[in-house]
């Protein structure tokens, strides 16, 4: 598979990069053989993205050399990278939603002042590409109407159309169903067969094991291992990523569901344009269980969670917590918190914290009007500080400095503080969105243990995650959402990845539909 | 991993503004040199004009009082994520409220007039800010646009009132009759005199102390109450505010009411303290200087006080300069003030980036 005689498709020699006090890349050197799929794996903050941004010309390395097919190249901008035959597919697609596929692909390489000629040429070229690599995409469809998997295909075609010989994919499966991910991997295999080189950046061990030829493991800005994929295992890679042995499985006993704490009946949520995002959903949460809400991102899970938390008003239906109908009484998120409905939001930085505030000020967000934090008309700063110190100690938030700005903490430590805030309020029901998004493996283990402990303390948890592994690891019962509906309910014991994947893709399962 | 290194606090609050100020003064010096005067002599004249005597100090702090009120007004709105360009109009209308109380109740004893005058100024200013705030909170009209327009409306309204309604009968210039002496804000020299400290008679008056009290009040409200906490959350992250059960439109209303009330207090200093009547355009641009003051003072009451004194000194020292240096006229002084605003506000990142690099590198070396 590798052609040892040829110079590497990409070689990095001593790439070093600092951002102020942060040493993001420490003298990195590695080579990618042509015609291979090379995995780069590491925790968030390990320096993967910085490295890829250097290769693609978004950042310039402080020192070091990049060679493409043995030739040293200067990459100061994405244009230079494209000229050197490097293409990148970003985690967040760089597509214009209301342009057609063809228009998106020629954007920036229209080939002259008049569109018509360039478009015709591009169309012919793309049809050839699609045939060669099995990358069929309807060229005249508006991009926003395509499913996510096809949008990603457009991104890949865009890079190939610009003459990319080396493709970098940054966390490509974050938005895909397992089946779509499998298709992507097949496609990458075809690209490899045709002699293209692929760098796959991910934090998912499963993907590395499934498709790569070699894998580079990064930790804290440095390369800690580079191995042939065949000669390693998930466990070994995980240990190298974290620097110690980790539990990949969540340890938990059987659930003992008790009384019903939350009942949702026929809930409909519409977006700002009046389009229903959640279409008449009904379910219950029992004390002492974790219910997982599986689904591809964007199928109504976020809107459902926000409606439950009181952030978004539903257009129809009931949310009953204990005896109270939260919808009819029109309770906002603060009042729902007082009734024991806590919420860890999916998008921590957008909603869960105020990045300009210190840790201690973030530790009272949503609880800032509680009597315990007041002294007469004023805030009780001593109580706020003490509360934060105690949360930091109990949840191992590092560094344990309540005065530090929250943005100075790593994603995992921010998330631990958010969890501490919500769990310490002693809720009856906890809504948890993406509890481990942007969180390193070490902290994931800790967060999972805390969630299971909360379940065992007789609370009800509703867990939304796009990581199917996380749902399978934590949930006692799994609801699957597709296009705003709950398409099925599966007990954990009956759930497999394939089954859930099919349901996530819209194939109705057994149980309630 | 694009973590932006941050400046240490002492450099952020002390060193950086100092460097910006020095750069502005250097450039001003070059311009003064260019028109044939000595920059050094000009600087001495300005400093002397602003701080050289009790009289100049009195004037400097008298001007600074206006800037403290408007600077606080801009800062409170800023913390709620709002850019209040309308402090000028709010000060104008607020002054009307203060002035009306002084005109009508001038026969009452001062200690009865004062609270009513404060209240009226705050209420009128708040009311003038409330309309743009309501339009933004409920109808989505952008507050930058509406507050600018409300400056013009305030100006037109006040011109009409002064020309047609409030004008003293039998007089040409559009201004009200003088307040009764009971409604004069006592000068600081009289207050100091009472406790045995001699001070020259200047327009500096009790309103200066009220401005300091307002600065302290703003600090307590914003950083020591859950009301201020909610305001700052809504200003920095509206999505997090909604998550926390804080309603951003409500914060917009309350923040603008407080902002307008602070701007509306300018009449206490300008009208009750110095002019003793309502007259055309008495805010004199203090509402706009307040934006620069808030910006330079990092929207913190202490910083606002320091920046307000600086701008007060520029006004007072500048008029001394144009008086004593034949080649430097009023417009030249405005240029110098403009340079200070430019360097301390608009161009502050020019020095921030290299300074951050130098300081963080030093820390790494340790």
Oligomer: heterodimer
Portion in beta strands of chain B:
under 5%
**What is the CATH superfamily classification of the largest domain in chain A?**
P-loop containing nucleotide triphosphate hydrolases
Strand content of chain A: 25-35%
Major protein interface = A-B, 40 and 28 residues
Q: Spell out the helices and strands of chain B N to C.
A: HHHHHHHHHHHHHHHH
Percentage of residues in helical conformation of chain A:
25-40%
Radius of gyration of chain A: 25 Å
The CATH topology assignment of the largest domain in chain A is: Rossmann fold
CATH class of the largest domain in chain A: Alpha Beta
Number of domains of chain B: 1
Distance between the termini of chain A: 47 Å
Q: How does the overall form of chain A come out from the CA principal axes?
A: globular
How many distinct folded domains of chain A? 2
Structural class of chain B: mainly alpha
Portion in helices of chain B: over 70%
How many extended strands of chain B?
0
What structural category do the secondary elements of chain A indicate?
alpha/beta
Radius of gyration of chain B: 22 Å
Q: What can you tell me about this protein's structure?
A:
Chain A is built from 17 helices and 22 strands. Chain A has 513 residues and is of the alpha/beta class. In chain A, strand 14 and strand 15 form a beta hairpin. Chain A is globular and about 70 Å long. Chain A starts with 9 loop residues before the first strand and ends in a 9-residue tail after the last helix. The mean pLDDT of chain A is 87. Chain B is mainly alpha-helical. In chain B, helix 4 packs across helix 12 and helix 5 crosses helix 6. Chain B contains 16 helices and no strands. The mean pLDDT of chain B is 90. At the A-B interface, helix 10, helix 11 and strand 18 of A face helix 9, helix 10 and helix 16 of B.
Structural features:
heterodimer; A: 513 residues; alpha/beta; Rossmann fold; 2 domains; six-stranded mixed sheet; 17 helices; globular; B: 366 residues; mainly alpha; 75% helix
